[in-house]
Amino acid sequence: MSSLGRASAILGAGTLVSRITGLVRTIVLVAAIGSFGRPADAFAVANQLPNNVFTIIQTGILTAVIIPQIVKSAVHSDGGRAYISKLFTLGTVVFLGATVLAMLFAPQLVVLYAEKFTPDQLAMGTAFAYWCLPQIFFYGLYALIGETLNAKRVFGPYTWTPVANNVISIIGFLVFIALFGGNRSDMLTWDPSMIAVIGGTATLGIAVQAALLLFAWRATGLRLRPDFRWRGVGLGQVGTLAGWTFLMVIAGQIAGLIQTRVVTAASGEHPSTALMMAAWLVFMLPYSIFAISIGTPYFTQIAEHAAADRHEEVRGDVARCMRVVALFVLGSGVALAVASVPATRIFTDNPAQAIQAAPVLICYLVGLVPLSLLFIVQRTFYAYGDTRTPFLFTLVQVALIIGFSLLAAAVAPLDQLAAAVALGQSVAGLVQTVIAIWILRNRLGGLELPRTLLSLLRFAIAAVPAGFAGWGTFLLLGAGAGWTAGQTGSTFVDKLLGAVGTGVIGLVAVVVYAVVLIVIRAPELSAATGLVKRFLPSR
């Protein structure tokens, strides 16, 4: 178990640095092009296109299928070298083909996601797309190399290399500000060179991120060579498994498409695509640091136990992982919720925008715990080679997201449209998680649910006074009119105050949360304490 704690600590530290630099990247990008405006939304839609394809590649194929298959291939006489060489060759061909197709259909893709953009905004989005879509190839290589490293228990590089991407982006966006000035929210002030700097910077960062992973490959002990002989090593089974996950992710992308088409109606004066992506980045901070960092090493172990038919150990792994992850994400989620105004001030232009944007973040945070638990449960199905069941319960979530998005479009005012869509996604995720846990419990013959539910109850009890303490601190500091919302007139100072205010308010909430758990003697604290100690320099 110490190896899992060490791996989680490495992933957590890397994710923390990556997310912090990602926030700085977002701050600099907002300083360059704004967050409430047509250029910002045009870039957000274009830059999201390769991310959507990356989601299909990573979640739909690699995480769901490749890690379990690579684990199984380790028993081959060559340690899986031939098998992995074939996968890499096939993957490179697929990524290159997907990139070319996306480039050919760039105008249609932009219209598909942003039909409600003005003609000038569509043209700008298409220009950005031509610069951003090559990211598909580099995202694919990054995911394929990274997931193979994870399967071979080389966890660090996959988490740390995004820091380089963020640093390059920060430098590029600062160059943009130096050359053209900041806050370019007026479309009439844009020209092709400005689009090239922003779009080219985004793609260069992803390319470097993928290239850096190659330096870690030696740690796998594998040597790769191009191999186009794709028959005879079980790739047909990979195709069958990937078919269900591909359909699952496509269904999710359809839901995301509907959300984007709905939200773009608010583009210009209200929170829209760019703001939702920024809020999602903040939301992903606790999810990535805790759910992914703790869950990823567990997933490799779960896959090994499942391959050996050690089902009782799988049940224990899943239950322990769920409890430890829930302990961290519930506390950090409450801390972010009560500090939502300072947190959103980091990527908005003034306090009024922060107050308007805060509900979007809060509505996303409603689904933080369910999404974190789903990460663990879904990958347990993958460990058993079952990709059909996750597809079926994901269809429920997709149907609910689409329904809630259309309902939001019909009844929500434009200034709250983004928040309504985010809330619908969170509720849909909650329903999906409940269904997934129920199915997995029946499949494994138990999942220690009474103990896990009792743990969740303890965490919820601790979260109530923590929330009140954090909110009280926010009010004592002046609420939306105080210094935590940044009203000095200096962009840098305002965003710095927002970050500091988030830290102060969040720290109060987290301390109260921890104190209550200590008072009620929550047994999960021992596992959490052991995990935290892995971050200390002495370890």
TrEMBL record:
Keyword check for Transmembrane helix: yes
UniProt membrane topology term: Multi-pass membrane protein
> Which species is this UniProt entry from?
Microbacterium suwonense
Q: Which subcellular locations apply to this protein?
A: Cell membrane
Alphabetized, the UniProt keywords read:
Cell membrane, Cell shape, Membrane, Peptidoglycan synthesis, Transmembrane, Transmembrane helix
Q: This chain belongs to which protein, by name?
A: Murein biosynthesis integral membrane protein MurJ
InterPro entries, from UniProt?
Answer: Lipid_II_flippase_MurJ/MviN, MurJ
The membrane spanning regions, by residue number, are 7-33, 53-75, 87-110, 122-142, 163-182, 194-217, 238-258, 278-300, 321-343, 355-377, 389-411, 417-440, 452-476, 496-520
Give the matching NCBIfam families: murJ_mviN
Q: Which domain of life is it from?
A: Bacteria
